[in-house]
Task: structure prediction
Amino acid sequence: MIKASDIMTQEVATIRSWATVAEAVKLMQQQGWRSLIVDRCHDQDAYGILTETDIVYKVIALGKDPNRVRVFEIMTKPCITVSPDLGIDYVARLFAEHHLVRAPVIQGQLLGIISLADILSCHPFIEQPQALVWEQTIQAAIDRAQAICAATGATSPACLSA
Result:
């Protein structure tokens, strides 16, 4: 079984919660990252996460000054975290259920970050979606054919061709 620790990215950018959003953006640009993990203030504190989406919707869209807004004002905290021993199928379900794009991998301390791209690049998940797409396409065609037959009658030419 493939685990989160097998596909996570170990290099993770962190930032302090009292940093400005402008500082966060600069760090994200320098590293080419789309999110930052917000450091804990103390060992019993929860980790947070700051994403590009947070910056766009909570700062830029509202016309706020990124030099005056602090990370703690717009970050998600506590954020959903992933255990390094969690199987990828469970991580994928967690991401789907909570509409996640990325999450920190934590076991007492920050070990890495796992993203939707990491999950999708994992071999078993490359082949599975194709089967799902075919199933959905076939089911949609069946649904259309049944609707045509219901509307035109079971012996109609339209139903027969559907």
In short: The first strand starts at residue 14 and ends at 15. The chain has a mean pLDDT of 90. The helical segments are 4-7, 21-31, 52-60, 71-74, 88-98, 116-121, 123-152, 157-161. Residues 101 and 116 are 5 Å apart (CA to CA).
